[in-house]
Amino acid sequence: MAAPTLQQPSFLLANLKADTSTKPLLHRCQDLVKIIDDYPAKELHAIFPWLVETVFGSLDGIIAGWNLRLLHSRSNEYNIVLEFLKPSGPMMKLVYKLQAEEYKYEIPVNYLPGPVKACIQEGVLPDCPLFHNKLQFPLSGLLTLNLALNPFEFFMFNFAYCLITPKSYPQGQQGSSTDSAYFVLVDTYLKYFLPSEGSVPPSPFSDSRGSVTAPSPRSSSVSFAGYGVHSPSLLKHHIFHQPSVNADPAAQEIWRSETLLQMFVEIWLHHYSLEMYQKLQSPQVKLALLQYRLSMSSMPCQPYAQPGSGTCHTYQEPFSPTEEHVLVVRLLVKHLHAFSNSLKPEQLSSSPSAHSHTHTSPLEEFKRVVVQRFVQQKLYLFLQNCFGHWPLDASFRAVLETWLSYIQPWRYTGEKTNPQQDQNRTVPDKWELFVQENLLMYTKLFQVFLNRAVRTDLVNAKNALMVFRVAKVFAQPNLAEMIQKGEQLFLEPEHVLHHRQPRGYLTPSQGGSYVSSKQRVVTDMVFRVKSHVYALEGQDCQYKQMFGTELRGAVMKLIQIIAQARQTAKRISDHSSVATANNSFMSWFGMGSSDLNNTFNGAEAEESGECLKKTHEFLDRALENLCQIFKLNQGQLTQLISNLGSSQDDGNCKQLPDCIQGENGLILTDLGRKQIISGLRRFDIRYQGDPELQPIRSYENALLVRLLYRISSLLNDRFGGHMNALCSRQDFLGRLGRHYLADPILRHN
């Protein structure tokens, strides 16, 4: 059979570009499938960068690509795209085909995460192993640095970057749906390359050694400890991008899982300052960076850096994650918990020293360290920035649920539980280690959430729900005790660490004692908690206890605000009920309420009767859970709420918000703003102009109001004289005309 006639790469690329504007997506994908199957890697190498840009869009956002974030299941192209981009589909087949030939593709350093870019432009090697041995120094006269990535890294970089690329969406569309093609592909890639069951399927293409070529090994002088506070010896070398010819094929394939995860973490979780980025780096990495900088200073060609940009003193990463971005991060967190929890019990319980003597698959070892080593530090900073910068509205729910998903790994064990039993289920003791190694995720972020909660409108049911969700999670039996124990370990005196027992100790059968064994366990726990806190907050951090006196005062303040919000919701609900009763059907005949300044008739949807009932329910249950968490005295709480209720009588509610006198009038203080947000006080704003020209309410149909006003004005102009004559008569018709046509105030004069 004759071989197919192959076009030259330049003609092939030109034809594909021409087809983009003339053929539908289905036909283009069918053509690409044939080209990927028939053409050798040398010809496919020329079209690969263009194809990636066509699918995911350009890194600068000018080219939209296939708009994966806007492509939903109801679209005709949805299934076509998923079939083409799935892990075993044609596109990934092209990636593996090029991977076997060791081709490289360049990414400008300008598109790297801000802190990484700033470090490179300063001549400092980033701590992330993903960027090691890939920096391409510019030739003489060139001003830009590039990274040389292999095909798999290049594909995953563009896929991950697609989420954060600023795009201009058509009016009425936004990329926040969890059924978009992009969201589904992220889920599919995670399940394929980080499987909870089984192993990662091998690639269909192989090189002369029988496996797809893995990335080149990193420099041995650079430690992997930058990804965590643990010793790098806990993880075997094959996870470090150091494959060998005689290595286990499964070990050579694990690099794809690591690359995918590193790419997602580096691209999606980098919203913090360069100073914070450098604080993340371990002492070993900082020493390597210093050596690298010294070697760079002797090079004739220095990396270009614009004056005043990208320096430690002037750089600040802008904060701009979207709700869609946070939802994808939550998907990553949930899957990593499920992936880590699928570790076999015997591997989970075995010590690091045992791993060096027993054979363990690379994937199982990866599961053991994936959350702490790869995700914890950067996710902590990402959430901390979200808590501090996100608007005080209901969209914060996405951030909140991401946090709550991370601190509840026991929800993703794969065990099927009854939802009713799950609400009161005790947190198993085996998660105590996770709580200790993630102490700041519980304590520090809870404190930051408190600062948000006291500034939020808790009368809104959606905001009240968020407070209830947090209180419910922390009120799970045994969780508060675990957090308290972790804090006690951190507060152990420093001299405890200076008398640590050696790792090699005698068991009781060998002449040792259980006492020394227990002391060593406690010492290791103290060291683990302190290492975690210092790694994230620095050696000079001022730790505030979650169950300390200061935070207890903040919790009491939140309880007071919750009680105020409950009373405000009740007052609004009662006022709405009265207003609804007054505006009955009889009001159409002029016999209803004539209050033109009623501010409750047009309550927004969040202030409707049903929502206010939910607000009351959420806040009541939040109060119960907070009392359970912090073991508050029920009598004192009742007294606090009753005192608050008696002090806020009707006269107090009519007071103005707290203000100071300024040059141009009253100026709200911070207390006054909180009073307005909580609905405790408000300005007595009344319309004093022509009642017929008062502003249109938010609950009214503006078009209909203007139309009826014009009709009534026209009737007044044409028949005003006749109506005045009718109202001037003293008989029955005159009284009837005055009742329906005259001003209510003038009617009784």
Please outline what is shown here.
This protein is an all-alpha fold and 749 residues long. The protein has helices spanning 9-22, 25-38, 41-56, 78-85, 90-99, 114-121, 151-164, 181-193, 249-268, 274-279, 283-297, 323-341, 345-349, 352-355, 362-389, 397-406, 419-423, 432-437, 439-453, 461-474, 479-490, 495-498, 514-537, 549-582, 609-630, 634-647, 650-653, 670-677, 702-728, 732-741, 744-747, and strands at residues 105-108, 135-136, 146-149, 659-662, 665-668.
Number of helices: 31
> Class by helix and strand content?
mainly alpha
Number of strands: 5
Strand content: under 5%
Helical content (DSSP H or I, runs of 4+)? 40-55%
Q: Mind summarizing the main beta sheet?
A: 3 strands, antiparallel
> What is the general shape?
globular
Mean pLDDT over the full residue set:
77
GO molecular function, one term: sphingomyelin phosphodiesterase D activity
Pfam family, one: mit_SMPDase
InterPro entries: Sphingomy_SMPD4
Subcellular location: Membrane
Task: Provide structural commentary.
- This protein is mostly helical.
- Helix content is 54%, strand content 2%.
- It has 31 helices and five strands.
- The protein has helices at 9-22, 25-38, 41-56, 78-85, 90-99, 114-121, 151-164, 181-193, 249-268, 274-279, 283-297, 323-341, 345-349, 352-355, 362-389, 397-406, 419-423, 432-437, 439-453, 461-474, 479-490, 495-498, 514-537, 549-582, 609-630, 634-647, 650-653, 670-677, 702-728, 732-741, 744-747, and strands spanning 105-108, 135-136, 146-149, 659-662, 665-668.
- Strands 1-3-2 form a three-stranded antiparallel beta sheet. Strands 4-5 form a two-stranded antiparallel ribbon.
- Strand 4 (659-662) and strand 5 form a beta hairpin.
- Helix 1 (9-22) packs parallel to helix 3 (41-56), helix 7 packs parallel to helix 9 (249-268) and helix 29 runs antiparallel to helix 30.
- It is globular, with a radius of gyration of 33 Å.
- It comes from Sander lucioperca.
- It holds the Pfam family mit_SMPDase.
